[in-house]
Amino acid sequence: MGLISKIFGKDLLIGLNRTGRYGVSKPITMQYPKEKWTPYPAFRGTIRHLTKETEEGETRVRCNACGLCARACPAECIHIVGEGKGKDRVPKTFVIDFSRCLYCGLCVEACPQDALEMTSFYESAVYTREEMVFDLDKMLEDYSKWERTFKK
Amino acid sequence: MDEIRGLVVTEEGLVEQDLMRDTLTKEMWVNMGPQHPSTHGVLRVVLALEGERIVDTEIYIGYLHRGFEKFAESKTYPQFLPITDRLDYISAHAMNYGYVLAVEKLMGIEVPLRAKYIRTLMAELTRISSHLLWLATHALDIGAMTVFLYCFREREMILDLFEMVCGARLTTSYFRIGGVANDLPDGFIEKCREFCNIFPQKAKDYDDLILKNRIWLARTINVANISGEEGLNLGLSGPSIRGSGVKWDIRVSEPYGVYDKVEWEMAVEDGCDVYARYLVRLKEMRESCKICQQCLDFLEKDDSGEFRAKVPKVIKPPEGEAYACVEAPKGELGFYIVSDGSTKPYRLKIRAPSFANLMSLPKMVEGALVADVIAAIGSIDVVLGEVDR
Amino acid sequence: MGENEKAPKKKLTKEEAIALAKARKAAKAAEAAKKEAEEPKVDLDSLPLVKAIKKEHAEAIEDIKFANNELTITVKKDYLLPLCRWLKSDPETAFDYLSEVIGVHYPKNEEKPLQVVYHLFSTQKNHRLRLKVNLAEDEEVESVYPVWRSANWYEREAYDMVGIKFANHPDLRRILLPEDWEGHPLRKEYPLQGPEGYREKWLRRHCRNTNAL
């Protein structure tokens, strides 16, 4: 038996059988720029800011510049300068340097106001390093169209 | 140099004599790496050759040194967690697991049962994905291209599961001190069950391709031998030492998580060679799949929703020290933390399995051929991110 | 005006904060004392490992600690190698695996600022032990390379990172850092991003393209 299987190359045939079967089945790969991957709801993409409606009916940023996210960040890429006091406190500048960001989501978890959340945006390649530094306006508006994903 | 007898034309006619008598052979030094396709990163091996036999091996590491241990001293305990992902970047969950276990031991935190099951499930999925990557690249190094594509297909399914749970595929940072970041999402259990059901069939595919392939057998059997005793002496751990007949698995000897509650079998082979290590890892994948099934059984029934223990907002372990180790896909991964009572570790030492495993490479390839070095490096499964830290 | 209002408020909170902190500290101390009283004291001499070591090598022991379910023995420097030899060969202890060698720097201990920690494991008996050796700045500790071959790289790493010198080590060089690196990064006085000006110095020494500076 051993000799016969050796002559006919049994092990080779078993391998070829397997390969041949997959040769005619549907491919599992994706043609990326044409087809796009939809991330799962837990996906950790670019961070954006959220707004809230106050009692007077005006829309404003949820963030009150407490600085907990900056303290939680392992990469130290969040820089905040606050303005005002108490309930009126808002961030004067809120800058995230995404070229340093780890996308770990610790800032979102740390936020007591639920002001930050992560979006499904993943194609974040740009031409210069300066474009990777996002300020508050950019995080409020440019990414509002993306699906809301990671939230604690 | 061995004597080779042969006929030589001399003044007295044909005379049988040692052919190597007048041949001068010099030791030759060959530099393998740091940029070599089979070194899986930036490992540099300098081989001293006599003919094609290796007489001496010198390993140079440190090309990927990022100073994590120094870095840890300037970060708080939760902040260091995402950094542990970058140690062995293809099995991030296992790295997280070792770190959180060490901090929990230091603080005396008891983790809820559900969180333990989730952690075990994730650690085992990581083991499968890490072994799949190992099988793919190891087979590719030796010359079997097809296995690579098949393994990556299944690995992709596991990475999808990871993305579903924690939103990242590679650098997951899903574990937290006291539990995990969030509960399992809807539909995860079904999807994971689907994977666990089809995986044994897929594992059979790999067997069909290379288990009895003659080229594979010739390249792996009796190559890079190391006995169990020698391996332990040289610091070998994990699947590599179990391929030398040593029955030591931290999941059995010092059970953490729920490994004492699930049924599975330790994979041990007596071959001591590359082939034995290959068999051990293949069996481990199947056993991991079994553990996953049992974890899913529990998680399906359990509706407690407790995925995180109550921990203080500011993590400040008491003064002291702790060493916690887990069975990472590569071997014993340990974290030794010295705390001085502040929010930052005073000293954190990472005991990386690949670093210790690499030490036995010179012993394995002593007297072997150059081509065997590639099989040997593949068989101990080094990840340079972990070696250099 | 605004500042005037602020000042008394702040003072009050400060006093309050101090009082609160004091109260909290007292509560914590009481809790710790309670915990200590509740926790069953482990009788060190009843542990089989301690018994065995005390019987054979009582003179080597400086201090024994049991915390977090881990046994720690501080060893006198000169007795380390014979103790390790015995720990490996004795069938009762059978420590056949050296997990790691760690160098720790305690600049506060002025007499003996350096510490070497050894983690041992026995695959046969399935127990762990931590050995510690305290060293002065210029002291050398005997290498355990003759007992466990794996000490080779571990000790090289401890030398590289903390600057602990091991006597009779076969090949004590730097392992992770380049050969001509200055200083030992895991010492406490070493700044996180290196000493001032070291980067420029390093680049000047090794970078052919000086425009990179």
- C-alpha termini separation of chain A: 63 Å
The CATH topology of the domain at 50-116 and 128-141 in chain A corresponds to: Alpha-Beta Plaits
Oligomer: heterotrimer
User: How far from one another are the termini of chain B?
Assistant: 41 Å
Number of strands of chain A: 7
**Biggest β-sheet of chain A, characterized?**
3 strands, antiparallel
Helix share, percent of chain B: 40-55%
Overall residue-averaged pLDDT value of chain B = 86
Q: What is the tally of beta strands of chain B? A: 10
Structural class of chain B: alpha+beta
Task: Report the top-level CATH class of chain B.
Answer: Mainly Alpha
Any guess at the CATH architecture of the domain at 50-116 and 128-141 in chain A? Answer: 2-Layer Sandwich
Structure description:
The complex is a heterotrimer of chains A (152), B (389) and C (213). Chain A contains five helices and seven strands; from the N terminus they run H-H-E-E-E-H-E-E-H-E-E-H. By secondary structure, chain A is an alpha+beta fold. Chain A has a domain at 50-116 and 128-141: Alpha-Beta Plaits. In chain A, the strands form three sheets. Chain A has a three-stranded antiparallel sheet. In chain A, strand 4 and strand 5 form a beta hairpin. Chain B is of the alpha+beta class. Chain B has one domain (68-387): Cytochrome-c3 Hydrogenase, chain B (Orthogonal Bundle). In chain B, the strands form four sheets. Chain B has a three-stranded antiparallel sheet with strand order 3-4-5, with no helix packed on it. A three-stranded antiparallel sheet of chain B has the order 8-9-10. In chain B, helix 4 packs antiparallel against helix 11 and helix 11 (274-301) runs parallel beside helix 14 (370-380). The longest helix of chain B is centred in the first third of the chain and has 30 residues, at 113-142. Chain B starts with a strand and ends with a helix. Chain C is α/β, with parallel strands linked by helices. Chain C has helices at 2-38, 48-57, 80-89, 151-162, 198-206; strands at 61-67, 70-75, 97-105, 114-121, 128-135, 140-142, 165-167. In chain C, strands 1-2-5-4-3 form a five-stranded mixed sheet. In chain C, a hairpin with a 6-residue loop joins strand 4 (114-121) and strand 5 (128-135). Chain C is flat, with a radius of gyration of 24 Å. Classes of the chains: A alpha+beta (152), B alpha+beta (389), C alpha/beta (213). The B-C interface holds B 61-62, 65, 67, 69-71, 73-74, 105-106, 229, 232-235, 237, 246-248, 253-254, 320-323, 325, 332, 334, 336, 338, 347, 349, 351, 355-356, 358-359, 388-389 and C 67-70, 72, 96-100, 102, 104-105, 117, 119, 123, 126, 128, 130, 148-150, 152-154, 161, 174-178, 185-186, 190, 192.
